Amino acid sequence: MTICYHPKLNDHGQKVKLSHPHADGPPEAWLDAEHVATVTPDGWMPKAINGIPFSPWKDAPTTTAGWANAPGQDDNLIEPAFHASTGMKAAAGVVIEETDGRIWVIHPSNAFGGYKATFPKGTTEGGLPMQAVAIKEAFEESGLQVAITGFLMDVERTTSVCRYYRARRVGGTPAACGWESQAVSLVPKAKLLGILNRTVDHPLAKMVGAK
């Protein structure tokens, strides 16, 4: 049996073995808003869809200070106060909406945390603004450069409270996703609930039109 490794090393410089790797979906699915399109790390992608090119975000921030000022934050967005109970970590994530109505989801490597598919998210660090954390996690986990378009909701999980934003793709490519994701998919809203295997994500999906 062939052993499959993620093409990118983890944060400790180690190879990540993928026990049940995904495969790229049919190329034509990217151009059909009624179908699920899937790409694996370094997989094939069309040059663009919906008028927005797919190209690696080469000048993405690489420092905490850089991420604090990452493009795509909405300084005029009105958000409710954030509250996390004692002992709970603060986190931020995004639901990325494509202009054809589909939603981007990541497939965590080896279904980490029991998630076969979910939305990009991660805990806050280095005093980064919530929006900056969401943009950073979107890039690291999906390879996409996004711009915040709105506030969705705060979700309490087992060890964290995560603030979720709506976002749109403005650049990047899912073929450049980091080691935490073994694939990235673009999913029609009608199929979203069936792909998100953890019900904690379902309220978010319904807020963007999943049924």
TrEMBL record:
<dbReference type="Pfam" id="PF00293">
    <property type="entry name" value="NUDIX"/>
</dbReference>
<dbReference type="InterPro" id="IPR015797">
    <property type="entry name" value="NUDIX_hydrolase-like_dom_sf"/>
</dbReference>
<dbReference type="InterPro" id="IPR000086">
    <property type="entry name" value="NUDIX_hydrolase_dom"/>
</dbReference>
<protein>
    <submittedName>
        <fullName>NUDIX domain protein</fullName>
    </submittedName>
</protein>
<dbReference type="GO" id="GO:0003824">
    <property type="term" value="F:catalytic activity"/>
</dbReference>
<feature type="domain" description="Nudix hydrolase">
    <location>
        <begin position="90"/>
        <end position="192"/>
    </location>
</feature>
